[in-house]
Amino acid sequence: VFLNGEFEEKPKVELGYNGQKSFDEITYSANVIPQNQIKSNYYQLSDLLNGRTAKTSYSRDASIFNRAGYIYDIDGMIFSSEAGIQLPFIDPQIIESVTILNSLSATHKYGTLGRAGVIVIRTKNIGYDEAAVEKPKALVEGNNYSESVELIEGSHNSELGGMLKQAESFSQAKQIFSEYIAQTGSPGVDVYFNASDYFRRWNMEFAIELLDVVGDLAYNNTKALRGLAYKYEELGKLKKAKEVFQRIAIISPLEAQTYVDLARSYKNSGDHQKALDLLKMMMMNQKEGIDFTGIRNSIENEIQHILAFHRTKVKYDDLPMDLRTANFKYDVRVVCEWNDPYAEFEIQFVNPGKRYFTWRNSKLNNTQRMLDGVTNGYAMEEFIIDDAAQGEWIINLKAKEEDTGINPTFFKYTVYTDYGLPTETSETRVIQLANQTQKVTLDRLRYE
Asked: What angle, rounded to 10 degrees, do the helices at 222-234 and 238-251 form?
């Protein structure tokens, strides 16, 4: 999701999964039918497409059949069939634009489905979730921000947390914890997660030892293991995080997030070719049973990030030309991940002009996006602030429901500044979504 600072820009061509680009940015063939070429006497989609591509045929009842493998991307909904498919009726007068993509460079983001070509259709009015259409709503009129939200703080509201707050030294806190464990018998992973957070103030080595216990308790628990890996990443224990992600790959091989996490851990540990190979596999949708298209932007950004810093160390000549560019950077990239695709929450960005954009992971407000995440096993989204309004940006978070189970839901966010540049910096934080049913401020970014 791009949070841009200006709306005045060159006209963009809608390229489906390739996003929007101006004509001079397109490096492949794209046959564009703009709105001004959609004549008033076009009553059926066949009237508009007839003669513009030889790979489609039209029945007398105006339905369109895909005879040569074309797929149709209609407002982000994919219609495809090996043998042929009848499309829903579309009134040409509500179409904003049509773009026909034929080359491999243009269609690779659709994976093998798009190998014979893609017809991208964008309409003026979209009939499903508006949240699925990514627009820079932070600057839209009416989105005026006037709230006062408290900055998030560490929370230890459990019974153990209340007991540990009475400790005046590390040894005393450790004694309280040991007695609590003895009385409880077999505590869940939530106890060790919370205790680890608390003991950071006294002894980081002991805090990490408590996280290690989670790894033993949750050996076959993907949700808890992913939360554990997030914690290790937050503390800079990248080798430990990599080992956990490798364990997840064994027990959850059909989740898209598994391979995103693995690729990142390989990159962080210096195995850039292995990371790139995984990312290319995801980009080309080559893992049977998983569709990675919902996180294609994040995958491509990771690919370009590797090339920005390690171009001479990896083999990349099989990448599409538009991903090989050396001119790659974002002012700010915020990557959000959570260890449960069913978790419902909203994240809000407020720009210096007090206009806001809210993105929701919600069955009600973002149905298609959340369903795709659950179906394909990913739980992440990224937000880009580039060439935007200067000043303080605020990031707020609110969970829909309290997490009352013993297997906590974690939300990890990483803020990159000068992403892709030699001056790049990053910071990762992990919080529990439990107890965040009141909106809290995660961060305040100074953007210059």
From this structure: 160
* 117 dihedral zone (left: phi>0; alpha: psi -120 to 50; beta): left
| Alpha helices by DSSP H, 252-385 | 256-268, 272-283, 296-310, 367-376
Residues 165 and 147 in one domain: no
Cβ–Cβ under 8 Å, residues 286 and 259: no
Give pLDDT tens digits for 227-240: 999 999 999 999 99
**Contacts of residue 220, Cβ cutoff 8 Å, sequence gap at least 6:** 251
* Shared domain check, 283 and 333: no
Mean pLDDT of the chain: 80
Quick one: pLDDT at residue 51?
58
Choose one of 264, 289, 315: the last residue of a domain. 315
Q: Is residue 323 part of a domain?
A: no
Give the separation between CA 102 and CA 70, rounded to whole angstroms.
Answer: 9
The predicted-structure confidence for 283-339, as pLDDT tens digits, reads as follows 999 999 999 989 998 999 999 999 999 999 999 999 988 888 777 888 999 999 999
Residues in contact with 421: Cβ distance below 8 Å, sequence separation at least 6, in sequence order: 308, 329
pTM confidence score? 0.69
Domain span including residue 171: 158-252
245: CATH: 1.25.40.10
Residue 81 tokens read as 């069939």
Q: What is the pLDDT of residues 139-173, one digit of tens each?
A: 444 556 666 665 555 555 577 878 888 888 999 99
Q: Are 64 and 87 in contact (CB under 8 A)?
A: yes
- Domain count across the chain: 4
